[in-house]
Amino acid sequence: MILLTRKIEFSASHFYNNPSLSPEENHRIFGKCNNPHGHGHNYTLEVTVEGEPNPVTGMVLDLKKLKEILECEVMQRMDHRHLNYEVPELAGQIPTCENISRVIWQLLEPKITQGRLHRVRLYESPDLFADCYRNGASAAGKS
Amino acid sequence: MSSALKIELGRRYRFSASHRLHSAHLTEQENCQVFGKCNNPYGHGHNYVVEVTVSGNVDPATGMIANLADLDSFVERQILDDFDLKSLNEDVPAFRDTVPTTENLCIEIFQRLKSFPGAKLERIRIEETGKNSFEYAGDISEGNHQ
Question: How many Å apart are CA B119 and CA A138, to the nearest integer?
């Protein structure tokens, strides 16, 4: 099995607030991320697809096709957007790396029909990221 | 959350430390052959990058697997306070009799972090330099393998 990864970057704003908690609790749990005016990040998204190379083309999937899917499903939804207000798929969820990576998985998984989505890794900064896998898959793709 | 998906959180930390690769079980000549420049008796140092990956349920109230402030303070206490700007050979008891290679450093850091109460420790990945990295996900006996 081959793993193929494509990387894109998008910029978006967000803040963390749970309306069912008191302002004091929100501040205690989320700290500076609770600022209601929001703040932003340059997100880096790595999308990894698994599969066997097609014997004719030598490709797991056409990278141009993957680029189009990422443009349509991620860039148009999230780039230069406010994740709390402008992304319906995140409505009612705190827009953490964990939740955004899961939403991106759910958006991409049905669209990738050549090969199979293996991993979504979303970096909020170079030192913080979330990975989303199919349960039971290993990080190295050995399962 | 959907149980069909597994979410992991990765966080990177940095520390700088010196070490010397030398085994008391080898002769001076053998140490020099095995470890080369890393056997220099005066030691040398690296800027280490430690990537800590944890997994668990995403709490719907917070959107988080683990509170980052909790993870940061745990790593600060368990690792950075003891390792940053230290000599691994002289200042870390685990390396008095064990060669402080990055392989062994992965194991030592895994042991120190596996009791993190907020989530399950999945693996430790350490970059000794921009060109070398090492990973450890625990032993089978630790029940950390699926």
Answer: 18
